[in-house]
Amino acid sequence: MGTVRPPRPSLLLVSTRESCLFLLFCLHLGAACPQPCRCPDHAGAVAVFCSLRGLQEVPEDIPANTVLLKLDANKISHLPDGAFQHLHRLRELDLSHNAIEAIGSATFAGLAGGLRLLDLSYNRIQRISKDPIGPGP
Length: 137
Prior knowledge:
One of its GO terms (cellular component) is membrane. By secondary structure, the chain is of the alpha/beta class.
């Protein structure tokens, strides 16, 4: 019987690096489109279309690389603080034609740096906190 040698550090490092890359690849694939939305992917820029879906709340599993998010014409009445904070690439957010009544102090936290369009028209907004977008990144 031969002696068992521990793996060489360089092989262990490569193995760990490959595992990490595989895990990152799987996580990217795991960033699935929230049900019942549609998410066409164009050159890594994701558009999430959740219009006219009868949603009562913002989906929690919106892909982090979303650039355009359409949540218009639903039944959303409440926007939790930080609901969009993981969407650092978000440029356009359409929340029009819902039942939103209030905008909290951190509803759009983290979006100040890149958001170009925010549509809140045709809602029931009665109260907007002082700084709902918060400081930029």
